[in-house]
Amino acid sequence: MGFKQNANEFHWLMDMLESVEVGLVVLDLDFHIQAWNGFMEHHSGITASQIQGQLLFDVFPDIPKAWLTRKVDAVAMLNIRAFTSWEQRPYLFKFRNTRPITGTEAYMFQNLTISPITNPSGEVEKICLLIYDVTEFASSKRALERANEQLARLSMTDRLTGLLNRGTWENLVDAEFERFRRYGQATSLVMFDIDHFKSVNDNYGHLAGDEVIRHAAQITRNNVRQSDSAGRYGGEEFGIILPETDTESARVICERIRDAIENGVVNTTAGNIQYTISMGIAQLTDSPENYMQWMQKADEALYKAKQGGRNRVIVG
Ligand SMILES: Nc1nc2c(ncn2[C@@H]2O[C@H](COP(=O)(O)OP(=O)(O)OP(=O)(O)O)[C@@H](O)[C@H]2O)c(=O)[nH]1
Predict the structure, then answer these.
(1) HSE of 214 in the Cβ direction (CA atoms, 13 Å)?
(2) What is the pLDDT of residue 312?
(3) Atom 16 (ligand 1) nearest CA
(4) Local structure of 59: helix, strand or coil
(5) Tens digits of residue pLDDT in 22-71
(6) The pTM is what?
(7) Nearest-CA neighbor of 90 among 59, 133, 57, 145?
(8) How far is the CA of 252 from the centre of ligand 1 (A)?
């Protein structure tokens, strides 16, 4: 009577494990498959009777053998449960993601629990793997992370030109100044400004003026290295940090930019616009006491370039 009741309960339990939305795999200590529930059948396309008794790594050669063996050995030896989240390892079984709502993810993200199964005398005899489908959670978390990265990037850059915005750029000037104080490498700072920009706006309109600003930014980007930092300092004023660059090399870079702009044409709906820029360079020496004084030196050189007739590069 008692046995029958137990057997009934057992069936009831098995039915539940069969249909639950969690993968259940029972292995012996040599990784032969002892149980494989409906979830696993559905996602792998392999039935329980096909897989029964087979070596897990033979059927799924993609499974990281050394890693899983180490985990399972620890679980068996210490008789404790282990947990791995999708963030440590996206999945154990490479199942295609079949849920339409999270269709952007190619594979199912999984959390994994590894539990010991003991015999009546308390020895670990088998291992149970529980595989949880966390694709929806993982993909929304990843989307959120992507959105946050984008937001961080947007808050650092200037909308019109895509260059660094003033705040970000100034922070970098400050950081570069501190770096110089520690390592003393030659570093140059450039400030430049579009000449007679007011008349561009007056003659062609504000939108065409914006096109000119965008053009100047693009020419700058085309002529500096990855390690240089260009920013939009104000309306039509820009700044460039040239790390590990002395004034002579800075002058070469600036002449290249100045020349490309002088010889370029901005095609706008209001007409084709030609313009020039004036540039000031300040190499970092021991004299500035803070980054603002360094910027002031570059700005003074820029002012001299304007005074000297514009469309030129002056080293301060
Ligand atoms: N289109 C446009 N114009 C801007 C923007 N920001 C500032 N300006 C304009 O830029 C002009 C700057 O003019 P000024 O500082 O007088 O100098 P300038 O005409 O360039 O003359 P110099 O610098 O002396 O060669 C002003 O007319 C501003 O309105 C912007 O984002 N877009």
Answers:
(1) 13
(2) 98
(3) 198
(4) helix
(5) 999 999 999 999 999 999 999 999 999 999 999 999 999 999 999 999 99
(6) 0.63
(7) 133
(8) 26
